[in-house]
Amino acid sequence: MKGRIVVLPGDGIGPEVTAAARAVLERVAALGGHQLSFEERLIGGCSIDACGTALAPDVLEACRASDAVLLGAVGGPRWDDPAAAVRPEQGLLGLRKGLCLFANLRPVKPHPDLADATPLRPERVRGVDIMVVRELTGGLYFGTPRLREKKNGRLRAVDTMEYTDDEIRRVVTLAFRLAQGRKKKVTSVDKANVLETSRLWRQVAVDVASGFPDVALEHMLVDTASMRLISAPASFDVLVTENMFGDILTDEASVLAGSMGLLPSASIGDGGPGVYEPIHGSAPDIAGRGMANPVGAMLSAALLLRHSLALEREAAAVERAVDGAIARGIRTADLGGSLGTAEVTEAVVRSIAL
Q: For the whole model, what pTM was predicted?
């Protein structure tokens, strides 16, 4: 098959880990006889420096014309001014909105050989296999009005959380479809005891569930969910929630795996190109030192193969190669190892077999 991939390395360690993900994709293409082309463009802080915006219009158009987007990370100290009119994160939000990406998928499945890497007791993470589905286009991050003003001598700021039933329905429906191929359980996380948007969320979730009689639905308040992710993570199958709750819970869930450097993500919409990225940030403190963990980026490449290119066999081959490397002790410093980004990448790429 043929596939066009736009690579957005971004800032910090982004270029290092996207290079690893690209190496995985190129290896898979060579083994499977696929023709994958790559176009590298700017996003985030480096884009602000080059053209004054975090996501240039021509870059967004290139992404729209692609089959998939491979993203590194955005941001860093030099652009870290909360009052700045242009910030790196605007590139990420603009990309999601411009590609109509409404769901972020984050699988959390700790490797059995990394039980000692998590701060939790090994028995707590045994059997954990969670798919977190986070809504991407609504909630506080996109609510209106967004206001900052001085009133009666005091500073005042306002953000609004807003959702429509259609926005909720499409992401909850996706969660149920994913659960049908897993353990057939959906946990819908909200704050329905306080928020009107959460009460709407719960109402729509119940309605969607009626169309999936083979899948069990449970409702859980976000504060309870945050506790259960640590105390009983194996009790979850598919967890679906709104934008801000999902942002927080997925970072918490990374603790289960032992390092944020291990976890991939896929942001998808209705049939257009998806965006694939590791969940970690730009880690400017280690950028350029060749020590970043590339596993999350390589597993994101596997999700790209699965969800955007429909290459399930190749996706599974990448995941097996990563699992095998970890089992052999191939690890970067964040996992207690001594190998660098390039060495881990080479070990995984060499072991990919279709």
A: 0.92
